[in-house]
Amino acid sequence: MDTSSKENTQLFCKSSERPLGRPSLTTECSSSKEKQQCCGELKVFLGALSFVYFAKALAEGYLKSTITQIERRFDIPSSLVGVIDGSFEIGNLLVIMFVSYFGAKLHRPKIIGTGCLIMGVGTLLIAMPQFLMQRYRYEKYSPLSNSTLRISPCLLESDNQLPISVIEKSQSKRSDECEIDASSSMWVYVFLGNLLRGIGETPIQPLGIAYLDDFASEDNSAFYIGCVQTVAIIGPIFGFLLGSLCAKLYVDVGFVNLDHITITPKDPQWVGAWWLGYLIAGLVSLLAAVPFWCLPKSLPRSRSREDSNSSSEKSKFIMHDQTDYKTPLGEKSKIMEMARDFLPSLKNLLGNPLYLLYLCASTVQFNSLFGMVTYKPKYIEQQYGQSASKANFVIGLINIPAVALGIFSGGIVMKKFRISLYGAAKLYLGSSVLGYLLFLSLFALGCENSDVAGLTISYQGTKPVSYHERALFSDCNSRCKCSETKWEPVCGDNGITYASACLAGCQTSTRSGKTIMFYNCTCVGIAASKSGNFSGMMGRCQKDNGCPKMFLYFLVISVITSYTLSLGGIPGYILLLRCIKPQLKSFALGIYTLAIRVLAGIPAPMYFGILIDTSCLKWGFKRCGSRGSCRLYDSNALRRIYLGLTVMLGTVSIFLSIAVLFTLKKNCVSKHRSFRTKREGTMVSTTIRKENYTTSDHLLQPNYWPGKETQL
């Protein structure tokens, strides 16, 4: 029995002495278990990352849907709204370089989880002003509606309809309101909340995508990234649909009696329950942080990754010859050594012409996209006369799904046809060219200005010579004591909108529920060139009959354009990942994200908003007399600014993308010639070439596809 035991022991020891490189049965079993565990944990990470992308995209989409609501609620111009929107990118700017560089050596899932908590708190902070501000007050006819006095809209200079005590009380009330209004700048809470959202969102993209790309097989990497990006597009769908739902609810729902509200969602002064969606989005972000605290710091790498010598960021971060970073599990990272290598790594990255050109092309293109998406709801409202609720609904239900389908299609095409790096660059360029060509057709799908007396049309029904606000006064209302700062639009029987019932020259009024009718409007009679009892109704007149048809065409072209532009998203992302050294992947993604945030995300909403403000025809005024938000835009000028700026930036990005393609082609030809020359040499030179052949050089081969880098 003892002899048999010794023989078995010797046999086991002999079997353990296997040739180098040949795995034993025990090793194979262990490898199989690790592979199954890695696959399961990687899928958990994929699901968690997808949910985080959904959460952050939900909040971002909802923010875009509430741009006009925030503008009206806080009575601020579009340029200031652009600053609030850009605060998200400012938050990214504060920490992106440190997170993307040092985060690659730390526990990436836990860093992402911490970011989700910060992002959730910031989203909840945005909704705080609703609970701190006074109730929303809009401009409405007859602010003394509780008075038993019957007041005519047109206060004739010869009349003395109001007692002095009533006038003094009204002036005293406005003075008190002015003092309260001057001491409150609650939009700062929205700014700070969005800033925190930006800080919390920082580690999600560079660390999350790099983590996926490190531990997924190279054949599945593009597909996984496509799945994450597709889920990220689903978030804005729900964000805009949530914005559409909340826009139908009055801003102070639950705080005031809605029976006393005289305006409807179609009124330009209507403000929906913008704060409600932020409470929901904040809770979703907090929930998304939970799974990341249960995930490991690193996963076993796939066999294809090991065979291709594509080192992970954990084992080889900056230099191939620096073995100090190959720390055993549990050893602390050497922060000082990483800090010393920061500048050399940055120089190495920016010295890559392909990466630098792609960075410039993407930055310019994102300027175009950020500005277009931020003010698209406003454009639909002002250009086609749609309500904020409907504008958000069509964007969320029609436009964004086209973007999701385009991104997913790009990932499928890359995986199915195994397109080379050069082919990916051509697909990226082709989608941009075709997309912006289609976008040009939107110039012909606009609506004409609404007929507003004194602003877009004269009181006699002809086009005015000047848009100066003094044109609001005419002979028909010269006897009335009218304010030129008020915006209480009245739609006359002649189809012309008047800035107020007083400026329409209306003498009497009646109210039935929320409907207010005005009669004996002298200015309405002048435009109609007839005599009689001309009336008007509270609210703006609808756009011309051809505008709904133009809006339908706009939606069709917009959907096709969105799909075409997003089709090049994944090819462009693969181009970014494959034109750099693998050990600099997180750092490169961080720099890329930093450039997009700083040079596109922050300035684009600002200068888009500033230029859009130049097309304003009628500004609103706050109680203290300072300028508020715009009440009426020049449709033609708005269309030229919004579409023209988008196309101009898109054209510049196309030229830069052409430069990327030519640079890649030049490198491909150069590397191919060098390959042929070295192949004709001796076996010694071939061996040396194999040892010194870097991953980034081979990425430029014309027939390259992830997984083929070991084939010579």
Task: Chart the SSEs and their pairings.
Layout: H1 2-16, H2 25-65, H3 67-73, H4 78-102, H5 108-126, H6 129-132, H7 164-182, H8 187-201, H9 204-215, H10 218-248, H11 274-288, H12 303-307, H13 335-340, H14 342-350, H15 353-374, H16 376-384, H17 388-416, H18 421-440, E1 490-492, E2 497-498, E3 508-512, E4 515-519, H19 522-528, E5 536-538, H20 547-567, H21 569-578, H22 585-601, H23 603-613, E6 616-621, E7 627-633, H24 635-679, H25 683-692, H26 695-698
Antiparallel strand pairs: 1-2, 1-5, 3-4, 4-5, 6-7
Helix pairs in contact: 2-5, 2-9, 2-10, 2-11, 3-4, 4-8, 4-22, 4-23, 5-8, 5-9, 5-11, 9-22, 10-11, 10-17, 15-22, 15-23, 15-24, 16-17, 17-20, 18-20, 18-21, 18-24
Walk me through the structure.
The protein has 712 residues and is mainly alpha-helical. It folds into three domains: 36-138 and 185-294, MFS general substrate transporter like domains (Growth Hormone, Chain: A); 348-448 and 547-663, MFS general substrate transporter like domains (Growth Hormone, Chain: A), CATH 1.20.1250.20; 451-544, no CATH class. Helices cover 60% and strands 4% of the residues. It is built from 26 helices and seven strands. It has helices at residues 2-16, 25-65, 67-73, 78-102, 108-126, 129-132, 164-182, 187-201, 204-215, 218-248, 274-288, 303-307, 335-340, 342-350, 353-374, 376-384, 388-416, 421-440, 522-528, 547-567, 569-578, 585-601, 603-613, 635-679, 683-692, 695-698; strands at residues 490-492, 497-498, 508-512, 515-519, 536-538, 616-621, 627-633. The strands form two sheets. The protein has a five-stranded antiparallel β-sheet, with no helix packed on it. Strands 6-7 form a two-stranded antiparallel sheet. Strand 3 and strand 4 form a beta hairpin. The chain is elongated. 48% of the residues are buried.
